[in-house]
Amino acid sequence: MVRGVFLDRDGVVCFEKNHLVKAEEISLIHNSGKGIKMLNDAGYKTIIVSNQAAIANGMCKIEDVRLVNKCIEDILEYDGAIIDKFYFCPHHPGGIVPEYSVACNCRKPAIGMLLQAARDFSINLNESWMIGDKTIDVAAGKSAGCRTILVETGYGGKDEIINVQPTFLAKNLYEAVSKIILKEK
């Protein structure tokens, strides 16, 4: 089985911007690409799992999120970093677009995106990690059986939506990846 590292997108790889829906608004957090490249070099499948409620809230379309993800992918290529796949949840039960205004099993803290990625890439969740800036990221990772790291970038766990403790804390994605690499040696 394969090991994976699941990453939240906004607040972990990119600076948190309330609903990043335009490519020109992308700004990567310092050394994110370098951290992702380290994961690639260590043989981890590197997967983005991101809630994108802006779709359910009518702020953008699925195509807009795909375009932002493609631009992030292109920017990361400058560091030689590869995201194996982007998964995103377009749902929010309080949204205004009827087809996406539903409760679902993919919106974190639910684990649908992690389970789908595990199936798609034969990832062993118990040998994998979830890195996020929100308590819902940590809760999703733990519920899926992953070890977890909460980064201080983005919300830095201050969302306090769920009372949950990560395996580790880190200043940013690069430091989180360094902890993973050291732990696995």
Describe what you observe in this structure:
The chain is α/β, with parallel strands linked by helices and 185 residues long. It has a domain at 4-52 and 62-84 and 111-126 and 140-151 and 167-184: Rossmann fold (3-Layer(aba) Sandwich). The chain has 6 helices and 6 strands. The protein has a 6-stranded parallel sheet, sandwiched between helices. Helix 1 (32-41) packs parallel to helix 6 (173-184). The two termini are 18 Å apart. The model has no long low-confidence stretch (mean pLDDT 95).
Quick structural gist:
The chain has 185 residues and is α/β, with parallel strands linked by helices. The protein has helices at residues 32-41, 53-56, 62-77, 112-121, 135-144, 173-184; strands spanning 4-7, 45-51, 85-89, 129-132, 147-151, 168-170.
